[in-house]
Amino acid sequence: MGSHKITSRTPGVFYHRPSPDADPYVTTGASVAEGDTVGLVEVMKTFHEVKADAAGTVSAFLVENEDEVTIGQDLVELET
Amino acid sequence: MSLQSVLVANRGEIALRVVRACRELGIRAVAVYSDADAEAAHVRMADDAAHLGKSAASKSYLNADAVLEAARSAGVDAVHPGYGFLSERPAFAAAVEEAGLVFVGPPSSVISTMGDKAAARTVARRAEVPVVPGSDEVASVDDAVAAAEEVGYPVLVKASAGGGGRGIRPAATADELRDVVVEAQREAASAFGSDAVYVERALQGPKHVEVQVLADTHGNVVHCFERECSLQRRRQKILEEAPAPGLSPAIRESLCDAAVRLSREVGYVGAGTVEFLVEGDEFFFIEMNTRIQVEHPITEWVTGLDLVAEQLRIAGGAELSVGQDDIVCRGASIEFRVNAEDPDQDFLPSPGEVTGLELPGGPGVRVDTALMAGDVVPPFYDSLVAKLSVWAPTRAEALARGRRALAEYRVDGLPTTIGLHRRLLDERAVVDGTYDITTLETWLAQR
């Protein structure tokens, strides 16, 4: 078992859910395949989906919902 | 009673624009700012400033409670919302009114009416202003087909609760329409929580022409002529000009009259913009923006008015400083929006540090920006970082002046739309002024 961190490709604001009233894309303990959406980053009023770049189980969210992120920042940790 | 102090509830170039107008009128200007904007120019140039919260817009400039609290503790007598953010939220304007402060704009009830598509169309019909031929909400596929026969094909099926271009589907024939209505109802239900749709005539290549109006609290309403804003990508304007090239004097007069009638009908107060689509010799009201507009400088260039100063005077209870006959449209003006976006990468937002900056200058050139060399463009807000506008006695000279000013303009450290504007000014349709709302996207797709 290894661990992998999904990072942000842009600076902005990180969201766990597609819209404020929706369910989160994934929760801790969920298994994801490569290419699955795990969150959303808003940059200058445009929204960019954050895709898992590896398969694994979500072990932790490293950024709270609606928190600011920088480019390259670790967002989600996977157990691979 | 003229205003003594104003909370400028915005950021960036428009906040600075309002701060400047306040200073010229002897009004104390209080800025607001988020964490990311603590060192920003609109804060530095204001008389005072209040911190709103974290950088995300929802935690700062969109946080109505924080803005109201800033207004109360700063002891201002008015709030200027700028554009975007809280400027067209009726609940915010109402809260400002309830706090006993002046909202620099129309009454909250007017924002509410004009922000509702159906209500705005009703106001337009009452004022005898043409709207795009369309139906009421259709209950069934057969109703939709009957409605389409009446308005004429091709049609668009639109979600009543939709907006920003979402929930719109085209149909050229009754057969297509039958499929499209079902899809549109399903999509509308899941996206907007209501499956209500209506049918509207699809225009083929209209121009977007809008009319600036000013109205005071004494019943005076004037227009300040029109702006041509058809060069748009995903419904975002990129270049605007005044006057609208190729518009016949008869249509210009009808448009301006219609804008004044509509503003009177709804009881408008302040600066506002009535937007129309123009196709052939027909024009149709689409919506009213109940605030100052991004592209207001080109109207200021051709009329010599200071629209933001007029807003502040109107909010202080004064009569308009000019009558309709005093307002003359002279020469030609063009505005170029400088966005922190990369036109070569599908307009990917490009926040970051501006390492070097050279602004254009000289005769007939104006730059509205809050961006200084060494500043960081934050990722949290709109990508507009500057507006270059030029004026000249004729349109041909304004185009030449635009090319000259764009050549002088240099931003280092991040991609912007400056290069795109340089290329656009070589395009035949732009030079001729024959472009319509489809031109820019078609051109970008072919490039």
Produce the secondary structure layout.
The complex is a heterodimer of chains A (80) and B (447).
Chain A: E1 3-7, E2 12-15, E3 31-32, E4 37-43, E5 46-51, E6 56-61, E7 67-69, E8 74-79
Antiparallel strand pairs in A: 1-8, 2-4, 2-7, 3-6, 4-5, 6-8
Chain B: E1 5-8, H1 12-25, E2 28-34, H2 41-44, E3 48-53, H3 64-74, E4 78-80, H4 90-98, E5 102-103, H5 108-114, H6 117-126, H7 141-151, E6 155-159, E7 168-171, H8 174-192, E8 197-201, E9 207-215, E10 221-233, E11 236-242, H9 249-266, E12 270-279, E13 282-289, H10 296-303, H11 307-315, E14 332-339, E15 341-342, E16 348-349, E17 352-353, E18 356-358, E19 365-369, E20 376-377, E21 384-392, H12 395-408, E22 410-412, H13 418-424, H14 428-432, H15 439-446
Parallel strand pairs in B: 1-2, 1-4, 2-3, 4-5
Antiparallel strand pairs in B: 6-7, 6-8, 9-10, 9-12, 10-11, 11-14, 12-13, 14-21, 15-16, 17-20, 18-22, 19-21
Helix pairs in contact in B: 4-5, 7-8
Descriptive notes:
Chain B: Keywords: ATP-binding, Biotin, Ligase, Nucleotide-binding. The complex is a heterodimer of chains A (80) and B (447). Chain A is mainly β. Chain A has strands at residues 3-7, 12-15, 31-32, 37-43, 46-51, 56-61, 67-69, 74-79. Chain A has a single domain, classed as RNA polymerase II/Efflux pump adaptor protein, barrel-sandwich hybrid domain (OB fold (Dihydrolipoamide Acetyltransferase, E2P)). In chain A, the strands form 2 sheets. Chain A has a 4-stranded antiparallel sheet with strand order 1-8-6-3, with no helix packed on it. In chain A, strands 5-4-2-7 form a 4-stranded antiparallel sheet, with no helix packed on it. Chain B has 447 residues and is of the alpha+beta class. Chain B has 3 domains: 5-104, Rossmann fold (3-Layer(aba) Sandwich), CATH 3.40.50; 141-201, ATP-grasp fold, A domain (Dna Ligase, domain 1); 207-446, D-amino Acid Aminotransferase, Chain A, domain 1 (2-Layer Sandwich). In chain B, 34% of the residues lie in helices and 27% in strands. Chain B has 15 helices and 22 strands. Chain B has helices spanning 12-25, 41-44, 64-74, 90-98, 108-114, 117-126, 141-151, 174-192, 249-266, 296-303, 307-315, 395-408, 418-424, 428-432, 439-446; strands at residues 5-8, 28-34, 48-53, 78-80, 102-103, 155-159, 168-171, 197-201, 207-215, 221-233, 236-242, 270-279, 282-289, 332-339, 341-342, 348-349, 352-353, 356-358, 365-369, 376-377, 384-392, 410-412. In chain B, β10 (221-233) and β11 (236-242) form a beta hairpin. The longest helix of chain B is centred in the middle third of the chain and has 19 residues, at 174-192. Chain B is globular and about 60 Å long. The mean pLDDT of chain B is 95. The chains are: A mainly beta (80), B alpha+beta (447). Chain A binds chain B through residues 10-13, 43-46, 66, 68, and chain B through 54-56, 58-59, 340-341, 349, 351, 379-383.
